[in-house]
Write a structure and sequence with these properties.
374 residues; alpha+beta; FAD/NAD(P)-binding domain; D-Amino Acid Oxidase, Chain A, domain 2; 2 domains; six-stranded mixed sheet; 22 strands; 25% strand; globular
């Protein structure tokens, strides 16, 4: 932060997803008076349709890997406080690719091992033994097992955090409509919304997922955006239980509270239709995704869809997070990231540290919004 005066007394956080809720809760813990403003309901955007896989798998920059591992650490602390939570688990992850791509899997494993990530190559039979419930016949050549990975149901986590936030005196404003940052003397001083609200503040945090670039664009700030259309499907409860997160050529899936599964992938992005009234997809695509999930499970399981949600998945233009105060608009802090689940707790913690102390945190140095103006 660029402030040199006393910490802010009043903060407005725009966005009811995990990043916004986490930041608001950490700020309220730290003694600020916080208003959390959300366009619709809490968690009804990307957080409500996120696979929410907690990981730092694959190839990443050193800084991004370190931040994600810190994010995973905060979830482990949360789970240790109540190991019975059925919406937060660390039962590992299993990844495999299409036939003929063995070299890609092996390269991924080598990269993970190089920076100390828990990573184990496994043939079909061994993978099936490591992750019971997976059909070994679905794995064409080799898989990578990551025992330290986990998952979270973000709507459950948001409910948990908002309970603390409100007990501490934080205010939640739902159905506020689209928000705009109010600027005065070239600095942020609050928020107005299309539902007619106005909230004055010392600091504004913009954490509204894929809408974040358009909100700050109103003040001439450019944040590259490549947020794709996406879908998350929840199944009916299933007989076959797989505890790990699976990432396969045609479906990504994780357990969900109540014995169901959450499913997503990218192969159907171009079949999602977006209009002013929202997003739609042909139900045949949903059934195809569910069938792909059934095929990777042992025991002739036939899953069925219970519900699905569609919308934009937040992804910055260069794929890495965007965190921190805007140099063009002091007092306005942005939080825009694809890895909202993995970074949800630690991002709120570090951003609140910056806002309350006025000092930049070194773990966010690589992710400043001004990198796009260099």
């Amino acid at each position: 932060m660029s402030r040199t005066q006393r910490p802010p007394e009043r903060v407005v956080v725009v966005g009811g997803g995990i990043i916004g809720v986490s930041t608001a809760t950490h700020l309220q813990r730290g003694g600020a008076s916080v208003v959390l403003v959300t366009e619709g309901e809490l968690g009804d955007g990307a957080s409500g349709r996120s696979l929410a896989w907690l990981n730092s798998a694959g190839t990443r920059s050193r800084d991004y890997h370190a931040l994600r591992m810190a994010g995973i650490d905060r979830y482990r602390t949360l789970l240790a406080a109540d190991p019975g939570r059925d919406w937060l688990r660390f039962d590992g992850g299993l990844h495999w690719t299409a036939p003929g791509q063995r070299a890609q899997v092996e390269d991924r494993h080598r990269h993970e091992v190089a920076h100390g990530y828990d990573s184990w190559p496994a043939g079909p039979r061994e993978a099936g033994a490591r992750v019971p419930g997976v059909d070994p016949a679905a794995i064409p050549e080799i898989a990578v097992h990551n025992p330290g990975e986990g998952w979270v149901s973000l709507p459950h986590l948001i409910e948990h955090l908002v309970g603390e936030f409100t007990r501490l005196g934080g205010e939640v404003v739902r159905q506020a409509g689209r928000a705009s940052v109010v600027a005065r003397d070239s600095a942020a001083h609050g928020v107005t919304t299309t539902a007619g609200h106005r909230f004055d503040a010392d600091v504004v945090v913009v954490a509204c997922g894929a809408a974040t670039p358009s909100v700050v664009a109103e003040h001439g700030v450019h944040i590259p955006d490549r947020s794709p259309l996406s879908m998350l499907v929840l199944t009916e409860p299933a007989r076959t239980r797989v505890r790990a997160v699976l990432n396969t050529p045609r479906v990504a899936m994780r357990p969900h509270p109540g014995g169901a599964y959450a499913l997503d992938h990218s192969w159907y992005e171009d079949r999602i239709v977006e209009s002013a009234g929202g997003c739609t997809i042909d139900e045949s695509v949903v059934k195809e995704l569910v069938a792909e999930a059934s095929h990777v499970l042992a025991g002739d399981e036939e899953l069925s869809a219970a519900s699905w949600k569609l919308g934009r998945k937040p992804i910055p233009g260069d794929g890495e997070p965007v965190f921190g105060e805007l140099t063009e608009l002091p007092g306005c802090v942005v939080a825009f990231t694809h890895s909202g689940a993995t970074l949800g707790l630690v991002a709120g913690e570090l951003l609140s540290h910056e806002i309350l102390s006025g000092a930049r945190h070194p773990m966010l140095a690589a992710f400043r919004p001004e990198r796009f103006r260099r």
